[in-house]
Hints:
Structural class: alpha/beta
Largest sheet: 6 strands, mixed
Number of helices: 15
Number of domains: 2
Oligomer: single chain
CATH class of the largest domain: Alpha Beta
Number of strands: 10
Amino acid sequence: MPLSDTQREPATTPEANVAQTASPVTLEDIRAAAERIRPYVHRTPLLPSQTLSRMSNTRLALKPENLQRTGSFKARGALNAMLQLSPEQRERGVVTLSAGNHGQGLAFAAGLLGVRCVVFMPETAVPTKVAAIAGYGAETRFTPTMAQAPAAVETYQKAQGLTYVHPFGDPNVIAGQGTIGLELLEDEPDLDAVVVPVGGGGLLAGVATAIKALRPDVRVVGVEPEGAPSVSRSLAAGHPITLDRLDTIADGLAAPFAAPISQALIERNVDDVVLVSDDEIVDALRLILERTKLLVEPSGAAGVAALLSGKTGVAAGAQVAAILSGGNVDRERLKQML
């Protein structure tokens, strides 16, 4: 949905007002994050696809963060946040909430640094993501739904003295995700547009901040599932909201709430946020696998889905990058989708 003047209402919470008066994440923060995490992450390539270009009527290249450490872009932000903890914070440990990918990224980063990590997840979390988090050495705790996780995290954090690393509303996490924007412009200086999957909005906020600081003419479009539109509804409300229910196959984009800092950055720097259906996501996932041989989870296919459905407002023939945000798909779910 376009960010119209009617959507740019003043924020109603003090935290959101602070976020809007001074940018909480700058280009310098993102550049510093790139240097900080460089030894630990992959610099994923930018891969053109003639078939998907033809089908989307663009010159499309894919940024395969499904090939990133832990299988998603989340390792970038988690590492940037973890590497800036004080010695006392490292000693005590960290806690977060996650549908899976942020939990894996934080568990991976914590494991590298020898830090205790606790991840709260919904009971419906993808089993392979739960197993991966445990495999990186983190502890898992469960709540009936994702919407109930924040309260559980807060209680546990206070009792244990842990540091909370927000999955998408932490400035250090956002700066880490923004390093993708730097890489996109380095690899494709003539970029016209970038299409970004949206859950809580940390990836979109970081990428948009980097790109608009360097190339304000580049169109930045976020893509949400129809069944989890927390960011677009927050934009319409003028402040972060919490959804009553989630209903999407893209579990990695099923954030039940938005955050003030990421929302402020999105409102400033993003040109549009559009919605795609689960059917469009699955169709895109199949095409990506068949035509590019890249395996993505439903969340990772959302950007391509929006391009194929013509919802992004990108001009015909434009040089476009679509971020494949992750590839941590459960085998049984994949069989059902294929």
